[in-house]
Amino acid sequence: MIIGIIGAMDEEVKILLSQLQLSRAQVKANMKFNFGQLYGAKVVIVKSGIGKVNSAICAQILIDDFNVDNIINVGVAGGTAEDIYPGDVVIANSLVQHDVDTSAFGDKVGQIPRMDTYDFKCDRNLVEKAQLACRKIGDIRSFTGRIVTGDQFICSTEKIKYLNSEFNALACEMEGGSIAQAAYLNNVPFVIIRSISDNANNGASMDYKKFAPIAIKNSTEILKNMIMNL
Ligand code: ADE
Fold this sequence. Notes:
Elements: E1 3-7, H1 10-19, E2 21-28, E3 31-38, E4 41-47, H2 52-64, E5 70-79, E6 89-97, E7 120-121, H3 124-137, E8 142-149, H4 157-167, E9 169-173, H5 176-185, E10 190-198, H6 204-227
Parallel strand pairs: 1-4, 1-5, 5-10, 6-8, 8-9
Antiparallel strand pairs: 2-3, 3-4, 5-9, 6-7, 6-10
The structure holds adenine.
């Protein structure tokens, strides 16, 4: 079994790469795919770059060229629910792309027109393994629910309220929904695990700078515990 691990930014893959027993690396679409053993599992770790297009291309390469059996995306996110704070972890069970809007044709916002699903559901087994990892670690607060994705850094109180009420979102980020769509189209199990770096409100960019390192540490720790049990 080979696990594809995607992080969008250097910071999100740095700890993982430092712990990878690297066997080889290959560059494709300007992304470096790093192969090796991580905590006893066979993995490919890659930095996709930020946003939906980069991350979808990355997921498709993992599937087509490197035959991964499942995909795990780790990184940071903005909190969009009450009671979710920097450092908390959100395990997605479902992803919606909040910036897709063909409501002019009567579609619900987020629905990709003419696709047979509104949301992209994460693999139940991977979700359970991530939840188990959180319980084992103990001192990280974790939530399971919907994460929404769009090509936007959210930094407005109004927008968070909208994301929460329209999509029932716990967190927002910029890659999970497109990784989910690529995995869904290829029938590959996936899960998105994000740790909160900010509350997606007016102070989001300041909070992000302050809390991203601790958030990344938490999502990495969960991944570590999780893949040791896969
Ligand atoms: N990733 C981390 N914080 C975010 C935010 N506020 N909006 C979008 N993506 C994020």
